[in-house]
Design goal:
1 helix; 2 domains; 9-stranded mixed β-sheet; 42% strand; mainly beta
């Protein structure tokens, strides 16, 4: 399996729902099919769009001849960064270069890599950030959510910050509903007035330091903090203060 990017790769699909899409296998004039350009078993960046419904993500070309595309990781979408339940009708499917995964030179000669900025000297040396800085996220970006919420692909490396004033449930999604990658991590911070309830139905969750699976409906107390890590398809570990 390899990650492949090619120019002018496009097809159509009439698949509905949130699952793997079946491609027509015939590219429009002037374009190349996924099977020909990307190749069966390889990954690529994709966009699926139809009217107001759209989704950008990482997918795998599957089935001999490249006639299906799995939607493995959603990077952005019209459904708040989660899998889109596509309606009936024909959708365009094409290879893209997502902004959040792009590398480009700014007008001031700094380089943007995804959401991180590298500043360069006139000689091309990196001046900021320091090369001693940790690689990865700069800080832990915040996603404020104080009502019902489901972890989304865009939450990776962030913290969900709650200032709830009443009951709040956060859903840890199954891989079938939101295909988050293994290694996905998110922290939940409760600075509200009510404990947060976690729904973990159809997933296996282990609370760090315990041997038995953590039951769905566990809670995070006021001023509690919990970090969630996906370690397998539908298996998570959670650790923190205020979990019960």
């Amino acid at each position: 399996m390899a990650f492949v990017l090619k120019d002018r790769v496009k097809d159509t699909t009439t698949t509905t729902g949130t699952g793997t899409v079946t491609l027509s296998g015939t590219a429009p004039i002037g374009y190349v099919s996924f099977g020909t350009a990307i190749g069966t078993g390889n990954n690529t960046y994709y966009t699926i769009t139809a009217g107001s419904e759209w989704e950008v993500g990482i997918g795998t070309v599957t089935v001999s001849g490249g006639t299906t595309l799995s939607r493995d990781t959603v990077l952005a979408s019209s459904n708040s960064g989660s899998l889109v339940t596509f309606s009936a009708g024909t959708k365009d499917v094409f290879v893209t270069y997502p902004a959040g995964r792009s590398v480009f030179l700014n007008t001031d000669s700094s380089i943007t890599i995804g959401n991180s900025l590298l500043s360069l000297s006139s000689a091309g040396a990196v001046t900021s950030p320091s090369l001693g800085d940790a690689v990865g996220y700069k800080g832990i970006p915040q996603n404020a959510q104080s009502t019902g919420y489901t972890f989304a692909a865009a939450d990776g490396g962030k913290h969900i910050y709650s200032t709830n004033s009443g009951a709040q449930t956060i859903t840890v999604p199954t891989n079938a509903s939101v295909a988050l990658p293994v290694g996905f991590s998110v922290t939940v911070v409760n600075n509200g007035t009510t404990a947060i309830t976690f729904t973990t139905t159809s997933t296996t969750v282990y609370k760090a330091g315990t041997s038995a699976a953590w039951a769905s409906g566990g809670t995070l107390a006021i001023r509690g903090l919990a970090t969630w890590i996906k370690v397998a398809t539908d298996t998570w570990f959670v650790s923190g203060t205020g979990l019960s």
